[in-house]
Design brief:
Helices cover 36% and strands 7% of the residues. It is mainly α and 89 residues long.
């Protein structure tokens, strides 16, 4: 989970400070340090910057693949059979 400190943290795309009134989006952390987009994960963005970003679809595809891989994991299968599927995944 990205930690964003309003009036201190910068948008990972435009470099301007994220303010309290800004619409902000963030990406979760990623573990693949070899991915050229790694530096953008676990970061915050102005929503408008993220929406216009030419790598947005590529990042979303990475997140979708991670979600699919997780849902195929034994851990996910065991936990969802015990407690039900999470509502926010």
């Amino acid at each position: 989970m990205a930690l964003i400190f309003l009036d201190k943290s910068e948008c990972a795309l435009c470099g301007k400070v994220l303010k309290e009134h800004d619409e902000i989006v963030a990406l979760p952390a990623a573990s693949d340090t070899a991915n050229p987009l790694y530096k953008y994960f676990d970061q915050g963005f102005h929503k408008s910057c993220f929406e216009l970003w030419d790598k947005k679809e590529e990042v979303q595809a990475i997140l979708q693949k991670q979600k699919e891989d997780f849902e195929k994991s034994d851990y996910y299968k065991e936990m969802s059979s015990r407690y039900g599927k999470p509502k926010n995944i």
